[in-house]
Write a structure and sequence with these properties.
The structure holds two protein chains of two kinds.
Chain A lengths: L5 H4 L8 H10 L6 E7 L2 E2 L2 E2 L3 E7 L5 E8 L2 H10 L3 E2 L2 H38 L6 H7 L12 H22 L4 H19 L2 H6 L4
Parallel strand pairs in A: 1-6
Antiparallel strand pairs in A: 1-4, 2-3, 4-5
Helix pairs in contact in A: 4-6, 4-7, 5-7, 6-7
Chain B lengths: L9 H15 L3 H29 L3 E5 L2 H13 L5 E4 L4 E8 L2 E7 L10 H12 L3 E10 L10 E9 L3 E5 L5 H16 L5 H8 L5 E5 L4 E3 L2 H17 L5 E8 L7 H10 L7 E5 L2 H4 L12 E9 L3 H4 L2 H21 L6
Parallel strand pairs in B: 1-4, 1-5, 5-12, 6-10, 10-11
Antiparallel strand pairs in B: 2-3, 3-4, 5-11, 6-9, 6-12, 7-8
Helix pairs in contact in B: 1-2, 3-11, 5-6
Classes of the chains: A alpha+beta, B alpha/beta.
């Protein structure tokens, strides 16, 4: 029987996020040449407030044609980074932005291996890997005390974590026109901020514990 | 004080040392000794802090609120031959349970409720910073809301927590003539009688509260999806193996009220909007511990796992001394068992 059935006949492209629809329209406004992003995540004492995205649609001479604001969402950022190639306002903000993107990317690994094992393997990967000399990573790792991972899944967990770092490296290279030096610095800074959030390092500094 | 780091060069340091000695009217050797000592003291303090941080570091923090909850955790840990070693921190006393499964685990005891100096909000933030814990599990006792379907000792696991104090109270629709008259009578009683408020409120209550309570999207907070999955698997395992006790996953109310009234409880439950996750009970500490969550909304690194000790009514609260131990023990048993199982099925 071959009766019509929309689920079998329709396109498999997912529906577009309403905010992306709007941004596509803003992108086509007369004079808009490029898109720039600023991520703001304020700190209220010991508490981090939810991140927000500020997206600027700029003209030829960097004049602001349209500004939009939205709660930070991975789907929006994926579109901005990978489709629109929209950079952050500066390198520091790019580091924050990619640190937020690291969270959903790492989540499946965390779910599979659990907090303790993931924490242990992550720190081993960083101590032994190419970011072991990145100043921001070194500074944060100095405050994290993890044991060696126990059990036989270390290689699998490590491979998954390194795969995430590799994907991020490629995304950053694409975003920064192949500039490896900038991409390395941003990824290192993003990893440092991810660790800082995960292990409450800034809070421990504020509380005078380190 | 002469800054010890960063040292730009020996020559600059020497010049600054001479200047400092001169300013203080101090012999150069004495100044050198003082600076050296200060450097050694700072290094010693830094090393001691690092050693303390390493000694207190864990992956998972268990949070209890009452002495019974703490005692039952210790009892269950001991029965499983786990250590329960006391370690003093700057802000809390920690009880280390060693390595359970693949997690280093410790517990802290906070005061009942979310706020105040020792409440769950400040204590959990401080303890997370001090131990670098990446997951918080609130354990102990809770109240159930459906006596016909739940029983004392059932373990409630939070898929999410509903913060019932995070609400917006607004005036209801314009009152009709009957309601207006009742309010006028209430006001007249206020003016003319010595027994103000109580009678007036009773009269006004006849016309309804005159306001509605609204909850926004921020009232409901999702718990760690990874931990919820782990407890769902444990629930399935217990069902399959006929283990004593039952694990119920759903949404827990959290707020500042100590509830011993069936009517208050029912009004509270009735005001909560319908959700995809069933409302299963309530407690008082999650509201504060959420402040210590990491900034990842999808996996905030906390979960509540508490045993039913009562049903928030006068009848069951009267028997609380007999039910509290069972509830706290059930919660501790479920949590330590979940920690012993792999994070995900292999």
């Amino acid at each position: 029987m071959t009766a019509s059935n929309k689920y079998f006949d329709a396109s498999t492209d997912p529906p577009v996020h309403p905010r992306i629809k709007a941004w596509k329209a803003y992108r086509n406004l007369p004079g808009v040449q490029r898109v720039e992003v600023e991520v703001r995540r304020d700190r209220d004492g010991l508490i981090l407030l939810p991140a927000r995205l500020f997206v600027s649609f700029l003209g030829k001479n960097a004049e602001l044609i349209r500004l939009d604001e939205a709660p930070w969402e991975v789907e929006l950022e994926d579109w901005l980074v990978d489709h629109e190639k929209a950079r952050a306002v500066n390198v520091e903000n790019e580091k924050l932005r990619f640190s937020l993107l690291l969270k959903p990317a790492m989540r499946p690994i965390l779910t599979r291996y659990g907090d303790g094992y993931f924490n242990a393997v992550l720190t081993v990967v960083l101590h032994e890997g190419p970011f072991s000399k990145h100043p921001e990573v070194v500074d944060v790792l100095h405050h994290i005390h993890e044991d060696q991972p126990a059990g036989g899944s270390k290689e699998d967990c490590q491979a998954l974590i390194e795969h995430v770092f590799t994907l991020f490296a490629k995304r950053l290279l694409a975003l920064y026109d192949g500039s490896r030096e900038i991409a390395v610095d941003i990824l290192g800074g993003a990893i440092a901020r991810y660790l800082d959030d995960r292990f409450s390092v800034t809070n421990s500094k504020i509380l005078g514990l380190v | 004080m002469i800054p010890l780091a960063p040292v730009q060069s020996d020559e600059i340091l020497e010049r600054r040392l001479l200047a400092e000695a001169d300013r203080r009217g101090e012999a150069v050797d004495a100044a050198r000794h003082r600076v050296l000592q200060a450097g050694l003291d700072a290094e010693k303090e830094r090393r001691e802090r690092a050693e303390q941080a390493a000694r207190l570091s864990v992956d998972v923090l268990l949070v209890t609120a009452t002495m019974t909850e703490h005692r039952m955790l210790r009892e269950v840990a001991t029965s499983l031959r786990l250590p329960f070693e006391r370690r003093a921190g700057r802000f809390c006393t920690y009880y280390h349970l060693g390595m359970i499964g693949t997690d280093r685990v410790a517990s802290i005891q906070v005061e009942i409720g979310a706020f105040g100096a020792g409440g769950s909000a400040s204590s959990c933030i401080q303890a997370r910073a001090e131990t670098r814990a990446t997951a918080l599990i609130l354990i102990g006792t809770a109240f159930g809301i459906a006596r016909s379907e739940q029983q004392v000792g059932d373990v409630l696991v939070s898929e999410s927590v509903f913060l019932y104090d995070d609400r917006h109270a607004v005036d209801g629709p314009t009152p009709g003539r009957f309601e207006t008259s009742l309010h006028a009578v209430g006001r007249a009683i206020d003016r003319t009688t010595a027994e103000r408020w109580t009678v007036a409120r009773k009269v006004r209550a006849l016309s309804g509260p005159g306001y509605t309570v609204q909850y926004g999207p921020t009232s409901r907070r999702a718990a760690s999806g990874a931990w919820v999955s782990r407890f769902r698997r444990l629930a399935d395992e217990w069902r399959r193996t006929g283990e004593t006790g039952r694990i119920i996953v759903g949404t827990l109310l959290s707020g500042g009220s100590r509830i011993e009234s069936a009517r208050f409880r029912d009004d509270l439950v009735a005001a909560i909007p319908k959700m995809d996750s069933p409302l299963i009970g309530g407690e008082m500490e999650a509201m504060g511990a959420i402040s210590a969550a990491n900034a990842d909304e999808q996996d905030p690194g906390w979960i509540v796992v508490k045993g039913i000790a009562d049903f928030a009514d006068a009848q069951s609260r009267a028997k609380i001394d007999a039910t509290r131990d069972l509830a706290a023990r059930s919660s501790a048993r479920a949590v330590l068992r979940a920690l012993q199982t792999p994070a995900s099925p292999v």
